Amino acid sequence: MLNSKAIKNDQDVLVEAQEISVIYPNGAIGLRQASIQIFNHQLTVLLGPSGAGKSTLLRALNLLVKPSAGKVKVKGMGTLTNVKNIRSHRRQTGMIFQQHQLIGRLTVLENVLMGRFGHYPIWRSIFALSKLERSWALECLDRVSLQHKALSRCDALSGGQQQRVGIARAIAQRPSLILADEPVASLDPAASLKILSMLRSICKQDNIPAVISLHQLEYARQIADRIIGLKNGEILFDGTPEELTDNVVYQIYGEIKSIDHQAAS
Ligand code: ADP
Q1: pLDDT at 260
Q2: Atom of ligand 1 nearest to the CA of 46
Q3: CATH top-level class for 1-92+177-265?
Q4: 3-state secondary structure 20-58
């Protein structure tokens, strides 16, 4: 695993999780001593069946889930230990969620402007943001081909369009990292591939490293520079899509056929 082509040199490490374990209050084990390094310029996909720990690992990378053991280090900030460096890391991290987490009654533009929120003191409402911010938000909407919907209510958009707003909101933050948690889980295959390709090309154009959790093997193969395979809270595989052999897929999922079926359905 160490000489995988997906592993770059230490200077490229943006975030490092060291032996992270997560035990939820109900006793469920989310992660077992998982260690990973997230590299600049790389699109990493967390792959694995439901309950494998993908979402837990992704959220542990900005401490939305608190590890029971282990630590998270960020380039230029060191170990995340205090409110100040955790907030600062989160401000630089664009999150994209499965259910978008947009506010349906607000316009598309207002939702994108919320991506800028963390950069301002609390007393400034989104309505008081400058013209410059608005034109930046419009530019971000243009990147996802939704500028013409800027003044529509968010809840009038399709699921795929809403996820594109979610991407625009994340990039409006000018993030140094994007974390996307099952961003296409509720979309049909055509919309899923469109969203993932869009996300990939934006990350590549802007040089933003991204970590995306997915359960569909085929999408992972198509968009990832690097795949991390999880099962039962443990990392079983860390390598390039080419290195993800049928044998490894079998170890992660227990069955190959069901995965092909999932990806094609
Ligand atoms: P995945 O994203 O791969 O589906 P998760 O990270 O959501 O996996 O879950 C890993 C394990 O942690 C599972 O056993 C799941 O039931 C458990 N888990 C996840 N979130 C919670 C939670 N909020 N409370 C209790 N258990 C949880």
Answers
A1: 44
A2: 3
A3: alpha beta
A4: EEEECCCCCEEEEEEEEEEECCCEEEEECCCCCCHHHHH
